[in-house]
Amino acid sequence: MTALDTAARASLVRERLGGAQRVVVLTGAGISAESGVPTFRGEGGLWREYRAVDLATPEAFGRNPQLVWEFYNWRREVLAPLAPNPGHEALVKMEQSVPHFTLITQNIDGLHEKAGSRNIIELHGNIWHVRCLGCGEVSEDRSVLAPMPRCAGCGQLLRPHVVWFGEALDPSVLRRAYEAVQKAGVMMVIGTSGTVEPAASMGILAKRKGAFLVEINLEPTPYTSFYDASIFGKSGEILPLISESL
Ligand code: BJW
Ligand code: ZN
User: What is the pTM of this model?
Assistant: First the structure.
């Protein structure tokens, strides 16, 4: 894509956003890549180096909770010093510029909140939250965790409060996301490979309900042909172009 194409498409998207009452943005790992967070698939992706079935399924945790905790503790260490990038910041500006804005993220890194976004739906949980296998209590814990952390209340094993493959998403979280998606006038899908359901199909649902559907990604995805506008490049460069004069 030439710089001219990018600028023209960014300006089209800005116009659509300017006329929209309800805007929904769905983000994936790509929006955090420029902050230094590894993505999952593609070059340098976590699932290139580690097998998801060994580390991100309830069966893996049942077999070897210590190994799974090592993986998540390592990722907490990697994430702790990282800061939001201009892509996250542009979405904060967008939220302040449109009447109703919902940010649905598949990311567990907490960087949208750190940037200052407010109306956030975290589909796959949050790495800074833990959940007790005994009493179900969910709490925030940013400290360095023990290799096998336990609940202060009931003494049972804690797990990361994230959604693993084969696990259902929290029904109330999913309901809020679908409500927003179905009412969207504009929906933007940013930095996700579109391979993990149910998030992957949300853009298509929004479009069926009448939304103008926009994609921002480094490269085409399985859904690219369904989008009204696709802008290929880094979200940290494209989003500021879109939100600067909103
Ligand atoms: C840039 C960029 C830059 C880079 N700028 N762009 C229907 C059909 C088939 C299967 C299923 C189905 N429904 C459910 C399933 C099963 C399964 C699933 O989807 N499997 C598929 C793989 C086939 N789904 C589930 O199990 C979900 N549960 C569920 O639906 O329950 C009900 C149910 C269960 C079973 C059967 C039926 C129903 C749960 C999914 C949980 C996903 N969990 C993870 C781990 C979270 C915790 C952790 O992080 O450890 O979530 S997996 C991982 O993938 C993580 C992500 O949120 C998720 C999506 O990844 P994402 O964000 O798209 O990242 P990448 O790396 O794939 O892509 C990055 C993109 O960014 C690329 O495109 C780059 O080009 C781009 N990029 N730099 C812009 N600077
Ligand atoms: Zn407990």
Answer: 0.97
